[in-house]
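debug: dumping io for the single-chain case to check the tokenizer round-trip. Nothing else runs in this session.
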Amino acid sequence: MEFKILQKQAIKNQVFIIDLEAKISQVPEITESETAYLNTCFADDQNLITLNRYGYFIFIYLVRPKKTDALTSESIRKSGADLQGISNKYKLADLLINNISTTANAALLLAEGIALANYQFLKYRTNAKKITHTLTTVYFTKNSATLKEVNQLSITVDAIYKARTLVNEPLNFLSAEQLSAEIAAMGKEAGFKVTIFNKARLIKEKMGGILAVNRGSIQPPTFTIMEYIPKKAINKKPVVLVGKGVVYDTGGVSLKPTLNSMDRMKSDMSGAALVSAAMYAIAKMQLPLHIVALVPATDNRPGENAYVPGDVVTMASGATVEVLNTDAEGRMLLGDALHWAKRYNPELVADFATLTGAASAAIGEHGIVCMGTADDQTKQAFRESGFRQYERLVEYPLWDEYGDQIKSDIADIKNTGGASGGAITAGKFLEHFTDYPWMHFDIAGVSFATARKGYTPIGGTAYGMRMLLDFLIHYGRS
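debug: decoded output
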């Protein structure tokens, strides 16, 4: 989807954003009968009204303040999704948004909801041309948004589309090697460096966690390193992002049930998709930050040489792990990646992973479970970004007692901690491989949608992307 600030061309289909301060009378060419109709609709608690001018459409959107600014913003985004549905129903190609309300960013929020709802993954649909959305361009009047804001929105939406598409791709296209190739293509387009380790290099680097998970697969693993270094970075030491890249997860020998579990495990690389597409946005926006991103990738299958419960694996750090469940594979990959991050002497590391069903069971599709050793100021900054973008965070503790649950009798640690506190014991496992300020984001409950809701389509969601970019945009500027 394209976003543009209106220049001289005439756009017939228009959206006027008003509020209690900006009256209906300020909307050009509204008749008395239309005004009466609008007032009746608003009195009936309707927010988005369609006026069919028989040749073009006028939409009037009334901003109704909620209890908090975050709730108001989210309400506007959701109304954008409603507007997207109406626009495609009437086969509109473009819209012009004119914000005459007192909510300064209302046009951007409405456009964001429109664009996020407008995403489609039609690569494998033979009737793609017939069902492709007609809406392609959103214009803004000059008073509704700045060029910088429009460019930032465009890049963010583009990155979200890329992340969603990666998640939606099936394994028979998106192997670990293909994921690395897709990341390399993003790096070439956006301007960040990409280095790819093949299996031989992983063996040389003794990345035992990745190699153990890969043992049951006929396809080789990869480890992709991305780096963006601007000319004048405001951070002296890099921020490192890590994304779990399990391109498909059968559970290995500890096989998952198919229904409502394995059938959508192509999404187990959502963390990798998120950090890779975030790097694309970071480079495109030319943020003044030195950023590194790491993606360990493989599929997890019960092949004839697969690792099994009871195995002891030596990780890249030298730590030994007793494997009790081969379906707890993501932490094995991330352990190696988090150890690799130490060589950058980072000032912050943040990992994103579809790591545990426990996180999903705890807070469902309404937020991200997080935990970490970063300072309170950093955690607060993440929370504020989460609320601004309505990709909210719930912090879990990393108490020592949870670490006791992953102590092993025959190795340094074991890869599961039992039935209780599953999301936290997974976090304690990851903490074992860190010696820097670190945050862990478990996106298991939000990475993939089985039904459309608001501006979130079926399939990959890229949930957490806007929160992360918001955090980085504000990073070091408080």
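debug: round-trip ok. The domain at 156-473 is CATH 3.40.630.10 (Aminopeptidase).
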